[in-house]
Q: What sequence folds into this?
């Protein structure tokens, strides 16, 4: 640099080229202008185009569009098949009806396989196989209607999810995996009340069967939704089995922490690197939701849970999640220490989780005397998580993290002013102060970003 | 993943889906095709709540054995198994003549059959033949037929020797559904 100072050492993450379609699209548009106006030479532009894979932009966008179109088409075809469930048809005899159902199922799957493997039309073929999985679900309902089978409504969804899951693994289809997730979660909501012990099995089954598939197919959507459904299942099952909101919130904290810990310490270039940010963000959102709900004093005054089990199996599942979270954190700490990373961004969520878990566990069943202490600890946890989001926005220069953290803190402050009886004048001062703080923070952050960009030269 | 392995996995997945579809109605289909045909009178139902969704809720004489009787009939726990013993009347309609709360009776009176059910709670027994799926276009027609007092409705049911029942048709208002 001209002033003789040492150029800044770039972090590993900053060395990787930005391959987002938006940036590459802008670069593709600007490069010819830079060459024409003499800012860069033609060979330099060609090297940049090669580095940022600009040539493949058109193919990628058409691939994405085609996938979207085929998925919509598959959904519409399958939806039409599902409409048969409501239509009924009694004009033909049951054996012919059954034959037609099997013909439809085998037809979709057979056509999908043929187009995919024999005609190299992979997107269309996979869409037809996905449509076949939808037809499979419709057929379960139709079979029950043809033979007037009476059963709990959710049993059909379990059968549907098993069939979709096996097909998802067989052809490595994230769409079929999402279908299996949706149908199995629907089954869970039905069985939760009738079979609480069985409902406890949903979360581990979901993680073990769908997360590996998400990694294999590189589907962040499947990963994030599987994690979210598992977290919600642990939460709902604990709440339903204990008849209390406190074990449910404990479940939310523990699953959020486990998800967040799973996203720490990713190895650059590994298959997991793609999913680590999704895992951290999902976990942080769940932790924040639990902390925010528990920041209200009323939650700590909830009466003792109604159904005290001799062997509270919901506590066993929460303990299992806690152990998993602890293991994931310890496994990541070594990698983090090697990179010199563990700091507030790592220990902040750990501290927040402890601030929620310790009083949340000790005060299970409610306590008039110590409820305020629990609420205070939750508010500190909220502050910590908000600060982590702000810090992440500063460290990674991501506006979304900064603004999410800012808005979360503002929400926290305003919630306290609205929760407690305060003077109207005080409320107005609080609102105005929050507004000013948001404006000042936003301006200061943008200045900070500009300074960082300028320093990189 | 090699093509042959993908084909094997795909075929296995399709086979599983077919097996599930075969398994869903297997018991009912077996009873329908091999069971003895009987006719059960369908009890009058509340005309304002006859239909629920796209199926008709049916009630039979053996649905509530406590109705109109004394306390000598024992109350069983919700979900427990119960067997209804049915005999045909002069109108060829089958009606309950007794119940067994401790498993199927060792011997049955001549000409009677057994129907397996369970106690749903609230003095209500079910035998797996209480819901009749009907096309949307014929819902009102069935509703009117079931409410015609001068033409009693009855259900055509197939029953296996073990007491499993499968609903086949509803005969109401001179029509068959």
A:
């Amino acid at each position: 640099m001209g002033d003789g100072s040492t150029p800044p050492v770039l972090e590993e993450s900053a060395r990787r080229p930005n391959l987002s379609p938006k940036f590459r699209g802008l670069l593709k548009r600007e490069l010819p202008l830079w060459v024409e106006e003499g800012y860069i030479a033609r060979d330099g532009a060609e090297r940049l185009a090669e580095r940022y894979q600009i040539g493949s932009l058109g193919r990628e966008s058409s691939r994405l569009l085609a996938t979207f179109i085929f998925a919509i088409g598959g959904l519409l075809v399958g939806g039409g098949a599902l409409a048969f469930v409501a239509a009924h048809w009694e004009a033909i005899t049951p054996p012919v009806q059954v034959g037609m159902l099997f013909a439809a199922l085998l037809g979709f799957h057979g056509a999908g396989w043929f187009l995919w493997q024999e005609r190299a039309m992979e997107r269309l073929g996979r869409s037809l196989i996905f449509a076949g999985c939808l037809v499979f679900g419709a057929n379960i309902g139709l079979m029950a209607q043809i033979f007037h089978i009476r059963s709990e409504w959710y049993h059909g969804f379990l059968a549907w999810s098993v069939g979709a899951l096996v097909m998802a693994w067989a052809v490595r289809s994230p769409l079929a995996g999402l279908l299996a997730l949706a149908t199995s979660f629907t089954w869970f909501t039905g069985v939760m009340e009738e079979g609480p012990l069985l409902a406890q099995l949903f979360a581990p089954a979901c993680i073990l069967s769908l997360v590996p598939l998400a990694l294999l197919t590189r589907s962040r959507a499947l990963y994030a939704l599987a994690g979210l459904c598992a977290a919600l299942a642990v939460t709902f099952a604990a709440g339903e089995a204990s008849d209390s909101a406190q074990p449910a919130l404990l479940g939310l904290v523990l699953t959020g922490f486990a998800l967040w810990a799973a996203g720490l310490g990713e190895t650059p270039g590994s298959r997991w690197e793609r999913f680590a940010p999704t895992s951290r963000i999902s976990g942080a959102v769940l932790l924040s939701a639990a902390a925010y709900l528990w920041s209200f004093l009323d939650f700590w005054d909830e009466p003792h849970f109604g159904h005290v089990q001799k062997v509270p199996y919901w506590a066993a599942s929460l303990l299992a999640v806690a152990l998993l979270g602890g293991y994931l954190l310890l496994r990541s700490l070594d990698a983090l220490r090697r990179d010199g990373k563990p700091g507030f961004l790592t220990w902040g969520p750990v501290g927040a989780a402890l601030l929620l878990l310790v009083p949340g566990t000790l005060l299970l069943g409610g306590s008039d005397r110590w409820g305020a202490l629990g609420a205070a600890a939750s508010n500190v946890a909220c502050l910590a998580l908000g600060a982590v989001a702000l810090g992440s926005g500063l460290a990674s220069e991501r506006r979304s993290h900064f603004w999410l953290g800012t808005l979360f803190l503002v929400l926290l402050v305003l919630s306290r002013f609205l929760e407690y009886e305060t003077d109207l004048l005080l409320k107005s001062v609080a609102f105005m102060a929050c507004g000013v703080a948001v404006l000042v923070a936003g301006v200061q952050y943008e200045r900070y970003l500009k300074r960082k960009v300028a320093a990189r030269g | 993943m090699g093509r042959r392995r993908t084909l094997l996995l795909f075929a296995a997945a399709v086979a599983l889906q077919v097996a599930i579809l075969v398994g869903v109605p297997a018991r009912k289909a077996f009873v329908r095709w091999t069971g003895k045909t009987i006719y059960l009178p369908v009890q009058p139902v509340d005309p304002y709540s006859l239909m629920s969704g796209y199926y008709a809720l049916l009630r039979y004489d053996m649905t509530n054995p406590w109705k109109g009787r004394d306390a000598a009939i024992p109350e069983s726990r919700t979900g427990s198994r119960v067997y209804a013993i049915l005999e045909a009347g002069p109108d060829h309609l089958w009606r309950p003549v007794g119940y067994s709360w401790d498993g199927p009776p060792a011997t049955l009176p001549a000409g009677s059959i057994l129907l397996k059910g369970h106690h749903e709670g609230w003095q209500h027994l079910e035998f797996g033949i209480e819901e009749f799926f009907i096309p949307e276009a014929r819902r009102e027609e069935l509703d009117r037929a079931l409410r015609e007092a001068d033409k009693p409705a009855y259900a055509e049911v197939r029953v296996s020797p073990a007491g499993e029942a499968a609903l086949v048709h509803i005969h109401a208002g001179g029509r068959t559904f």
Q: What stands out?
A: Chain B touches chain A at residues 1, 3, 6-7, 9-10, 12-14, 16-18, 20-21, 24-25, 28-29, 32, 54-55, 126, 128-136, 138, 166-167 (CB under 8 Å). The first strand of chain B starts at residue 36 and ends at 41. The CA atoms of residues 25 and 31 of chain B lie 10 Å apart.
